[in-house]
Amino acid sequence: MGMRPGQRERGQDRLRESRHGRRWPKRLALALLTLVLVVVAYVIGLYFWGDSRLRHTDAFDTYADQPSADPGADWLLIGSDSRSELTSEQRKKLHVGNNEVFNTDTIMVLHYGDSGPYLVSIPRDSYVAIPGHGKNKINAAYALGGPKLLTRTVEQATGLKLDHYAEVNFLGFVDVVDSLGGVTICVAKGGLHDEKSGADFDAGCQRMDGTQALAYVRARYSDPLGDLGRVRRQRQLVSAVADKAMSAAVVVPPWRLIPWLGASFDALTVDDGTGVRDLAQMGWRMKELAGGEGATTTVPVGEETTVEGVGDVVEWDSVKAEQLFSALRDDTTIPASDLK
Questions:
Q1: What architecture does CATH give domain 57-338?
Q2: pLDDT in tens, 195-207
Q3: DSSP character at residue 190
Q4: ∠ CA(277), CA(149), CA(273), 5° rounding?
């Protein structure tokens, strides 16, 4: 007996459904594979694009009494106060002078490894030995011999073997903050008002654009703690930038990530051995700091004094400073009592 018309149609329907059922997993797998390939291509493209945008400098030298490498990773992070690339209008807007200077307004050491991360501010007026130039303020090392002399000076003063160097200038810093849409900073009680830097902030948490953020971290004349108060605000801002930059809201959408990466790569100058992968790891460690891991601190200081021919300087507390740097060199946890 042959199949009746109704049975034949039902059989054909079941056959089509069976074939369709076998096809959809293949289609899903193909779609997922395509998505993965697109993401991988996007990430690889960003990597090589970023690597091509990075500016490098010969920041390290080898010398006879150079410290040995420690178990962790050590970065020297500096903010250059060079104004040579600024127009007169930009200098006025950013409240910086017209003279061309080549000192370092910000000097920090970032350490991470089994312990940390730790972000340590070195006051720019720290009175230390500069190889070949006697004793002077530590920020003078950059003016006297560029990145190489500065890294050597920091290594000799701290006993740390530096692994990476990263530098950002005034204008680059402003562009990085603006590319993030600004950052939120909580200003301490009493506010911060400094005519020379352009800082004019009441107490409380508020969003700052790049120009405001620069004024916030450069202010020192109205701060009762002077430069020591400024370095605290510098660490506060660095943590705020890292926290926002490494958030999903910036990292995931290409229209947010690419402008920020472009501004960051254009702003940075790194040592010859540092690449995009190193910067990504450094950024993640900074985000950990902002999230409460590790700690931030300033090199313990003893007294502030005046040296003829040099000016006002900061002397380190040699015992406490050695305790701090010894812990970093050994990659051990620093007791909370040693941090401030």
A1: 3-Layer(aba) Sandwich (3.40)
A2: 888 888 999 999 9
A3: T
A4: 20
Question: d(Cα 172, Cα 242) in Å, to the nearest integer?
Answer: 15
Q: How far apart are CA 268 and CA 55, in angstroms?
A: 7
Position of tokens 């005034």? 170
CA distance 12 to 164: 69
Output phi, psi for 221, to 5 deg.
Answer: -70, -30
d(CA 13, CA 249): 48
Question: Could you write out the three-class secondary structure of 220-280?
Answer: CCCCCCCHHHHHHHHHHHHHHHHHHHCCHHHHCCHHHHHHHHHHHHHHEEEECCCCHHHHH
Least Cα distance to 260 among 268, 275, 250 occurs for: 250
Residue 111 · residue 97 · CB < 8 Å: no
Give SS3 for 79: strand
Q: Are 213 and 156 in contact (CB under 8 A)?
A: no
CA gap 168, 75 in Å, rounded: 13
Segment 251-303, tens digit of pLDDT: 888 889 889 989 998 889 999 999 999 998 999 999 999 888 999 999 999 88
Spatial contact of 209 and 201, defined as CB atoms under 8 Å apart: no
